[in-house]
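Researcher: Good morning. I'm working through a list of sequences from a screen, and I'd like to move beyond sequence-only analysis. For each chain I'm collecting a predicted structure so we can compare shapes side by side. This is the next one on the list. No need for commentary yet; just the structure.
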Amino acid sequence: MNKDQVKGVGEQVKGKINEAVGKATDNPGKELKGDLQQGAGKVQQSYGDAKEDAKDARDEAKRNNP
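Model: Good morning. Structure tokens for this chain:
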């Protein structure tokens, strides 16, 4: 797991909290902020996943072609 994956998950959690607070307080702005944070977190996590996949592929290639 790399830092982008961790930050992405953290941002998604913050987004869920903001969304829930927005719903509970009938604050559409806070709810929207939560939705946007979740989206940004998913993008960052996906970026981290892609970096991990590339690293794994590179390591596999090194093992197979010493």
